Amino acid sequence: MYKQRGPVVYVLDLADRLISKACPFAAAGIMVGSIYWTAVTYGAVTVMQVVGHKEGLDVMERADPLFLLIGLPTIPVMLILGKMIRWEDYVLRLWRKYSNKLQILNSIFPGIGCPVPRIPAEANPLADHVSATRILCGALVFPTIATIVGKLMFSSVNSNLQRTILGGIAFVAIKGAFKVYFKQQQYLRQAHRKILNYPEQEEA
After folding, report:
1. Does 94 lie in the same domain as 193?
2. Distances, alpha carbon 17 to alpha carbons 1, 5, 7, 8, 14, in Å
């Protein structure tokens, strides 16, 4: 039998239990709030980077605060979702299927229409954590790359927004073409791979 507690000990014990139960919820709230405000900050920086620093500030100052609090965090979310769309794989499947009807594809991507002895298994790109981190990093750095490519390739365009959009389209197209070629070469290597028997050594 425990000794009866005094009012001070009872209050301290109750406060300790309440704090222990509230800490996980407080930590989750702090984590969610940190992620939210990080997304808001990233969205604001992206707007100023894509539209232009002065123009971006003017747009955000004229916009409704509620719209900014809802719209800005969706920018990184939409970039990540867009990065997860693997359009190169769909293009590659269509080209493998109809390449025999389009002879120009064989000159651009050698071997794309040739028959293969077997169909190699392709791994799920989201199955490993490395691909997931690459998708995250690639999506978040995409506006910066689009801005740089737009300034290098479309410097004659006066509008910052149009220049960045054209730079993003050019970067995605060029990168996609190289990726399709690289995946096709890997596909052909896997399809023509042969497993040889290990030669047994003759006994002396």
Report:
1. yes
2. 21, 16, 15, 14, 5
Per-residue pLDDT of 78-113, as tens digits, reads 999 998 888 888 887 777 777 666 655 566 555 555
Cβ atoms of 49 and 144 within 8 Å: the answer is: yes
Number of domains into which the chain is organized: 2
The domain boundary, picked from 47, 70, 85, lies at 85
Contact by Cβ (8 Å): 48, 57: yes
The pTM of the full predicted model, rounded to 2 decimals, is 0.73
pLDDT digits (tens, 9 = 90+) for 181-193: 887 777 777 766 6
First to last CA, the chain: 85
Tell me the HSE value of 133 on the side-chain side, using a 13 A CA sphere.
3
